[in-house]
Amino acid sequence: MNVRRLIPTAVLAGAVALGATALTACSGGGATGGKDGKLAVTASFYPMQFLAEQIGKDHVKVDGLTKPGVEPHDLEITPRQTAQLGEADVILYLKSLQPAVDKAVAQSGVKNVVDAATLTRLEAHASAGHDHGAEEGHAEGEGHDHGHGHGEAGTDPHVWLDPAKYAEVAKGVGAALEKADPSHAADYRKNTDELVGQLAALDTEFKDGLKNTASRTFITTHAAFGYLAERYGLDQEGISGVDPESEPSPARMKELQEVAKKENVSTVFFETLASDKTAKVLASDTGLKTDVLDPLEGISDKSQGADYFEVMRSNLKNLQKALGSK
Questions:
Q1: How far, in Å, CA of 19 to CA of 62, rounded?
Q2: SS3 breakdown of the chain: % helix, strand, coil, rounded to 5?
Q3: What is the Cα–Cα distance from 269 to 276, expressed in whole angstroms?
Q4: Phi, psi of 99 (to 5 degrees)
Q5: Mapping DSSP to helix (H, G, I), strand (E, B) and coil, where does residue 286 land?
Q6: Which of 51, 159, 173, 318 holds its CA 20 to 30 A away from the CA of 43?
Q7: Which residues, in sequence order, are CB contacts of 271 under 8 Å at separation 6+?
Q8: Residue 221 Cα distances to 176, 238, 292, angstroms
Q9: What is the helix (H) or strand (E) element at residue 310, kind and residue range?
Q10: Which of 21-35, 50-64, 162-176, 190-204 has the lowest mean pLDDT?
């Protein structure tokens, strides 16, 4: 069920403009709060940190709130981190993904706060069940009652798994760094353009790589891949919805066994930061293989790659292998 609750463009534009105004308000012609004269950027979790590092390069000092190997949804902020947050020149976060971060950001008093959710259009995806083709009326509120990692309107925060949407966020982050540190604006612009170009190339790789697959359906423990599925014409079936740790019901497991049979599914995907127990149970009950599909919420030594691009390319290979070719 592909329910989308779209944020009107005018509202979005207004939010972006507001963000830009807030940023100029405290830019003061150049940032001074950073260490070694660098812009001090605090990023809530890996996808935000990666953007700050790629766009800011030598001009920024980036601190990540979510340490490698920690499931970002579960992050608790220490008083020390809250205090550190208040010293940042710029905070990059994605509102509604990490409630503890939202609270700390609101208390930080930092003027240059960038919410990635305002930089692209968020949609609602069913967290368990088909992402495509169900009736509109059937979908209201379904699959969004986990209270975990989703916004109030049930929107899906995992925009970075769609390279085209991630590029939109990258442009907004670039503009924010330009405003906060105008003396290096030209470099931020050049680095943003370079990153957007790399994301466009990745988008093309996914489009070409997933064009002619034997199956269009994949099963995953963490229903984080709604944007990716929609972008490349696939169907995501989440075992336990948005929360990678929640236990699926026996009825849901039975339903997935039927889906696997009907849609020619070969593989159950699990992720590196959460338990693979449910994926293995379903796989053994249905005679399927298991493999990794990484929602890229963090990079650890278990990740199939050292950065965003490497892990996304591993995801593409694993999807191609699981979906087969015509």
A1: 20
A2: 50, 10, 40
A3: 9
A4: -55, -40
A5: helix
A6: 318
A7: 220, 221, 222, 224, 244, 292, 293, 294, 295
A8: 35, 6, 10
A9: helix 308-323
A10: 21-35
| Bridge partner residues of 315 (DSSP) | none
pTM: 0.82
Mean pLDDT rounded to a whole number for the chain: 83
Cβ-contact 118, 19 below 8 angstroms? yes
Tell me how far apart the alpha carbons of residues 66 and 72 are, in angstroms, rounded to a whole number. 6
At 42, list the tokens.
Answer: 């605090």
The C-alpha atoms of residue 52 and residue 152 are separated, in whole angstroms, by 27
Is 65 in contact with 42 (CB distance < 8 Å)? yes
The pLDDT value given to residue 122: 95
- Predicted local confidence at residue 245, as pLDDT: 60
Nearest one of 226, 227, 244 to 292, comparing CA atoms: 244
| Number of CB atoms found within 10 A of residue 277's CB | 12
Nearest to 134 by CA among 2, 226, 290: 2
> Exposed e or buried b for every residue in 51-74, given b needs 16+ CB within 10 A?
bbbbbbeebbbbbbbbeeebbbbb
What is the secondary structure of 65-94 as a DSSP string? SS-TTS-GGG----HHHHHHHTT-SEEEE-
Amino acid at 117: A
Q: Is 123 helix (H, G, I), strand (E, B) or coil?
A: coil
Give the whole-angstrom CA distance, residue 46 versus residue 69. 10
- Contact partners, residue 174, CB within 8 Å, separation at least 6: 55, 188, 189, 191, 192, 195
- Angstrom distance (rounded) from CA 131 to CA 161: 15
Strand ranges in the chain using DSSP code E only, listed in sequence order: 39-43, 60-64, 90-93, 113-115, 217-220, 235-238, 267-270, 289-292
pLDDT band of residue 194 (cuts 50, 70, 90) is: very high
209: helix, strand or coil: helix
CA nearest neighbour of 209 among 132, 130, 290, 318: 318
What pLDDT, on the 0 to 100 scale, is given for residue 36?
Answer: 82
How far apart (Å, rounded) are the C-alpha atoms in residues 41 and 61? Answer: 6
Token couple for 306: 């050292």
